Structures are given as C-alpha cells and as structure tokens.
Amino acid sequence: MLLDIYIIVLLFVFGLVMGSFFTVVGSRVPKGESIVKPRSHCDYCHHELRWYELIPVLSYVIQFGRCSKCHKKLSLIYPLIELLNGFLYSLSYALYGFSYEMIAFMVISSILILVFVSDFEHMIILDEPLIIGSVIILLLKLYYFGFKTFTTSIYSGLIMFVFMLLVKLIGDKVFRRESLGGGDVKLVTFFGFVFGVRLSFVSVVFGSFFAFPYAIYLSLARKDREVPFGPFLILALLIVFIYMDSIKNLLNMFVYGF
After folding, report:
1. Which stretch of DSSP H or E encloses residue 143?
2. 113 with 81: CB under 8 angstroms?
3. Is residue 27 part of a domain?
C-alpha cells in the first residue's frame, strides 16, 4: 500500500515536470522556435525566468500567478496543464499497475497535452509526438502480445489512415476548402495502432460529438476560426481507452445480438 502511494506520488511529480516540458514544445515548435533558446521568459516584459521560477505549479502559486518583475498576471492554463498531466500519469498506475495499459495510457496522455497546446494555439498537430508515440505503442504491442498483434495494429493504422484521407479528400471537394487537417488524419492513424479499426471508429465518432458544441459556440459568436479537431479526438481516445472493455462488450452485443 505504501509502495503504491509512493509510486503514484512519484508519477504525479514526473507528470508535472513533463507537462511543463510539453507546453514549451507545443508552444514553440509550431512557430519554428527552439525548445532550448531563448530560455523561458515572461511574455510581457521578457524577463528571463530563473530556475526557482520554473518549478511546475509551485512557482505559479508562490508568485500569486504574476511575473516577479513586471507583476503582469500570467496565464492559468500552464499550471492547469501541468496538473492535468500529473494527474493522468498517476492515474495510469492507479488504474492499471505496471502493465502495457499503464505505459500506453501515459503515452496517450502526453500526446493529449501536446495536441491540446499546439492545435488550440496554432492549429497544428506536430508530427514528432505522433511518430514517437506510434513507435512506442507498436513496440509495446510486439513485446506484450507478439508479432501477430503487432502486424494487425499496423494494418489497422493503415486502414484508418486511408479512411480519414478519403474523408478529407471528399470533404475538401464538397466544401471547396480544407475540411480536415493533415494532422487529424495522422492522429487517427495513431488511433488504429492503439485500438484496431472498430474502437478507432468509435473514438472518431466521440471526438466529433465532443467538438460539436465548440463548433456551435464559434458559429454563434461569429468567430472566424476553424475548429481544432485534434484535442477533441485525443480526448475521445483517452476516454475510449479507459472504458475499452465496456465499449467492446457493447459493440459485440450489437454485432452478435443479446
């Protein structure tokens, strides 16, 4: 019991640190900036942050959410993202223990944070996290479940890629504008690697359902911007992963009858 609590706390702290790193990657890489230089700084006065101003969440709390030099209010989104990533990392162990599911859940959580930051801020889904995440998932499948599951996962990813590419091409033709980003197509390919075809389709449906209220809000507010579909897709992936067995059973009931 004490060991479990220790591991959960350790993963939470690790998640905070990685969450802070992911916000830097998601904010800078889409703009072509280095994640090393310039060093982290205040967006208002460009004060270069010292090491003790970079402690995830804690620095924000100690400074009352303000820059130590110009005292401008800092965005709350960054400590919230750090807390979310810490919570998800610790939740992975609480739900699954040391297992394939735990590592896969952490990979999905990391991509969730990266996609959320880059797609909401810049309407870009970075290729690198998806490539790294896909490689990790496929290697885990090979190690835990064998070569057959490994190859099936690759085929499933390719099927989802072709399906989403067709949806994009048809949508672009019908609406005479980009209906779906290339990053969304690659993201759903990652779904195929994680889930296989059936649950990937379920995740896409859920993601569309989650994105719909935000799209309505943008329409009513007459805001001229596209809907960042990626964060809603990856949120759906996370939820389907948690309730995977229940959803599989429900699908089997519809396919094979009660």
Report:
1. helix 127-145
2. yes
3. yes
